[in-house]
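Observation: inputs received (chain + thymidine-5'-diphosphate).
Thought: call the complex predictor directly.
Action: predict_structure
Action Input:
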Amino acid sequence: MNFKLLDFHIFGDERGSLISLESNKNIPFEIKRVYYIFDTKNDVARGKHAHKNLQQILVAVSGSCKVLVDNKKDKKTYELNNPSKGLLIENNVWREMFEFSSDCVLMVLASDYYNKDDYIFEYENISKFKD
Ligand code: TYD
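Observation:
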């Protein structure tokens, strides 16, 4: 499957909690870019594209949002509301993020630098996932 939820280990003690994310260890690619989305209005949807080559992991480090992922074989909506869960989205997967809580900070780890040419903006142009 080219999308799945990952569970990150929480280092917790009486002081609180800590999660560490490391390239090619608990993150299955080399992290070349990190960005985060915040102050998103509850009634807007973001994303609405796929990528030709990019792999990404989405983590709601605060608050919550929903993420629809669709590879034309399977389609699923995840609610991200826990900083210890990361949604891995590989290439050729359509994604839409919506229903952002007002306190949502959605952090995205990406396997490559920003490249507009890597975007697929038309749903029709993604190919069906094959096992
Ligand atoms: P956009 O792709 O529309 O965000 P989303 O996928 O959440 O709908 O990106 C918004 C703007 O930010 C757009 O002008 C492109 C720019 N941008 C960068 O410059 N670098 C990045 O790494 C990303 C993700 C976006």
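Thought: report the result.
Final Answer: The radius of gyration is 15 Å. Residues 3-10+20-117 form a domain with the Jelly Rolls fold (CATH 2.60.120.10).
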